[in-house]
Design a protein that fits this description.
Blueprint (H helix, E strand, L loop, with lengths): L4 E4 L9 E6 L3 H7 L1 E3 L9 E9 L2 E11 L10 E6 L3 H13 L3 E2 L4 H8 L5 H12 L3 H11 L2 H25 L4 H37 L1 E6 L6 H9 L17 E7 L2 E7 L9 H16 L2 E7 L6 H10 L4 E6 L15 E3 L8 H11 L16 H22 L4 H19 L5 H9 L6
Parallel strand pairs: 1-7, 8-10, 8-11, 11-12, 12-13
Antiparallel strand pairs: 1-2, 2-6, 3-4, 4-5, 5-6, 9-10
C-alpha cells in the first residue's frame, strides 16, 4: 500500500458535480502539481480550497479541493478529494492527468480495503459500507448503518472477551489442580457461561433470517400452468406492465422479475414460464427454470385458474409446493367457479381484472413472514452468509465444549474448543483473515469506495 491511488467516486454521467478521490503518501503533492490556487501542501487538514486544475498552462476545470491529512481520514492516509463540474469528458480528463502524474487507478473497494488493513474499521464495518450503498429500503439502510456504527462488532467483541475469561478460568484448573474448591467452582462457572453463550448464539442464528429479509427482501416465485394469469398477477402487484400478457400459451419463456415494498420490506417477485409438457426447446428450458425456482425462493405463489377444473398438471404443482412455503392464488374469480380444492388447501381467491383479492394476497405474505412483528428498531442482525457461517462455527465449538464438560473430559481439552471459537470470532472481525477471501470481498465494491 505504498503507492497513491485515485478513482472517480461519483457515477459517471452529466451532473452538477463529480468527485475524484486520491489516497496515499503522495496524494497532496500530486494534486498540488496540477492545481492552480493556494499551495495545497501548506493547507491545513480538513479544509476546502478553491482553484483550477491545469495541464501545460491550460485550465481544465474550476474546482474545489478537499485536503484531509492522515491519520484522521477514511483510509488513515493523506486523502484529497477533487470536486469537479459533473461531466464525462472533464472527469475522465482530470483522472488521466492524475494517472500520468504517478497515481494508480484504484481497484474496486480499495479505499475501504485500506481503511480495513490500516485498522480504522473491522471487517464487519467494511462489509456494512457496501451494504449502505446497496440499501434499497429504509430498514435495510438502518440495518447497514447500525452495523457500520459498530453495534454488531461490539456484540462480537463482548463474546470474544467472555471466551477469553473462560480460557483464563480453565488455566486456573490446569495450574492449580490441588485446590479442589477452586476447581469445582470454576467448572460450574464455565458450564453456566457456556450455556448462556450458546443460547445467545442460537438466537443470533435464528434472527439471521430476519436480517436477510430486511437486507435482501423476500424472493417470491409466481408459478403455474400457462395462461392462468401469472404475468397478469405480476403486473397487477407491481402496478406496471412488466411482463408481456397475451392469450397465447407459452408467451413467458424466461424469468421476468419485479420488486415492490411491502411494510418496509422488499418483495422480489419472479414471474416464471408456464409449467407444462412441451416439445418446444426454448419453452422447455423456461419450464425447467420455473421448476428449479420452486426450490430456490423464500415463497411460492401457485396460480390456479378458478374457471377450470383442476388438471393433472395443477395437482402435480400442488404436490411440488406442498413442503415449500407457499400461497395458492385462485385467479379469475370474476368468472363462474369450476375449480374444486381440498378443504386443507389455504387459498386466496381473486382476479387481476379488477384487482380483487390482491390486498388479501399481500396480507398473507405479511403474515407468513411475520413482517409486522419484525423488530425494526434492533439493527444488530447477522446479515450475510459469511457472518452467519462463522457464527454457526462458533456455536458448534461451544456446544462441543459444553458436551465434553458434561462428559467429564479434562478441562485442558475443552480449552481447545474455546480457542477455536475465539479464532472464528477473530475471523468475523477480520483480526485474522485469508488474503484471497479479503480480495474477493472487496472486489464486490464499486470503484471509488
Amino acid at each position: 500500500m505504498e503507492d497513491t491511488i485515485c478513482a472517480i467516486s461519483t457515477p459517471i454521467g452529466v451532473g452538477g458535480i463529480s468527485i475524484i478521490r486520491v489516497s496515499g503518501n503522495e496524494s497532496i503533492e500530486i494534486v498540488n502539481s496540477i492545481f492552480k490556487g493556494k499551495d495545497l501542501e501548506k493547507s491545513e487538514s480538513h479544509t476546502i480550497n478553491y482553484g483550477h486544475i491545469v495541464e501545460n498552462g491550460e485550465i481544465i476545470d474550476e474546482v474545489l479541493v478537499s485536503i484531509m491529512r492522515k491519520p484522521r481520514t477514511y483510509t488513515t492516509e493523506d486523502v484529497v478529494e477533487i470536486n469537479l463540474h459533473g461531466g464525462i469528458a472533464t472527469t475522465n480528463k482530470v483522472l488521466k492527468i492524475l494517472l500520468d502524474k504517478g497515481c494508480r487507478l484504484a481497484e474496486p473497494g480499495e479505499f475501504t480495503k485500506r481503511a480495513f488493513l490500516n485498522g480504522r474499521i473491522d471487517l464487519l464495518k467494511a462489509e456494512a459500507v457496501q451494504d449502505v450503498i446497496n440499501s434499497e429500503n429504509e430498514f435495510a439502510r438502518k440495518l447497514s448503518v447500525g452495523q457500520l456504527s459498530g453495534k454488531l462488532s461490539q456484540i462480537v467483541r463482548e463474546l470474544k472477551n467472555e471466551l477469553i475469561g473462560l480460557e483464563a478460568n480453565i488455566e486456573v484448573n490446569i495450574d492449580y489442580p490441588e485446590y479442589e474448591d477452586i476447581e469445582e467452582m470454576t467448572i460450574v462457572k464455565i458450564r453456566d457461561k457456556l450455556a448462556d453463550l450458546s443460547s445467545l448464539l442460537e438466537n443470533m442464528i435464528k434472527e439471521a433470517n430476519t436480517g436477510k429479509i430486511i437486507k435482501n427482501g423476500i424472493d417470491v416465485a409466481i408459478i403455474g400452468r400457462p395462461n392462468v394469469g401469472k404475468s397478469s398477477l405480476l403486473n397487477a402487484l407491481l402496478e406496471e406492465e412488466k411482463a408481456i400478457v397475451t392469450d397465447v400459451e407459452g408467451t413467458t419463456r424466461d424469468i421476468v422479475e419485479g420488486k415492490m415494498i411491502l411494510n418496509g420490506i422488499a418483495i422480489n417477485f419472479i414471474d416464471t414460464a408456464g409449467i407444462r409438457e412441451t416439445l418446444d426447446v426454448v419453452e422447455k428450458i423456461g419450464v425447467e427454470k420455473s421448476i428449479k425456482k420452486i426450490l430456490e425462493v423464500d415463497l411460492v405463489i401457485l396460480v390456479l385458474n378458478g374457471n377450470e377444473e383442476l388438471t393433472k398438471e395443477d395437482e402435480n404443482l400442488l404436490e411440488k409446493v406442498r413442503d415449500r412455503r407457499h400461497i395458492v392464488f385462485v385467479n379469475k374469480n370474476d368468472l363462474p367457479k369450476l375449480i374444486d380444492l381440498d378443504s386443507g388447501i389455504c387459498a386466496v381467491y381473486g382476479n387481476t381484472k379488477d384487482l380483487n383479492g390482491l390486498d388479501a394476497l399481500k396480507r398473507e405474505i405479511v403474515d407468513l413472514f411475520n413482517v409486522e412483528n419484525i423488530d425494526k428498531k434492533d439493527f444488530t442482525y447477522i446479515s450475510n452468509a459469511r457472518e452467519l457461517s462463522l457464527i454457526e462455527k462458533v456455536k458448534v465449538s461451544l456446544d462441543k465444549a459444553l458436551s465434553s464438560l458434561d462428559d467429564g473430559v479434562p478441562v485442558d481439552l475443552i480449552a481447545i474448543d474455546l480457542r477455536t471459537a475465539r479464532e472464528h470470532l477473530g475471523e468475523l472481525l477480520g483480526e485474522t483473515f485469508d488474503e484471497e477471501l479479503i480480495d474477493e470481498l472487496f472486489k464486490r465494491f464499486c470503484l471509488g469506495k
